[in-house]
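Need a sequence for this fold. Nothing fancy.
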């Protein structure tokens, strides 16, 4: 089994603020409040969570080859 990375840096598309967060391993994260501008990030169409849309590393289930995290 591949090594799973649990930290991902989210980059806000509205203001460019970058914040490193620990990804949940037992649930999808559909929403994220930007700590820079307060925008509420939602997954892009076709992505399962905010980490897959805006993160430097996709969520753990996607890293191990799942089609979706939920």
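Here you go.
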């Amino acid at each position: 089994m591949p090594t799973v990375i649990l930290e991902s840096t989210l980059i806000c598309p509205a203001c460019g603020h970058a914040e490193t967060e620990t990804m949940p391993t037992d649930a999808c994260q559909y929403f994220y409040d930007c700590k820079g501008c307060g925008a509420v990030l939602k997954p892009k169409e076709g992505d399962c969570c905010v980490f897959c849309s805006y993160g430097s590393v996709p969520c753990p289930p996607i890293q191990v080859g799942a089609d979706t995290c939920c």
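For context: The longest strand covers residues 7-11.
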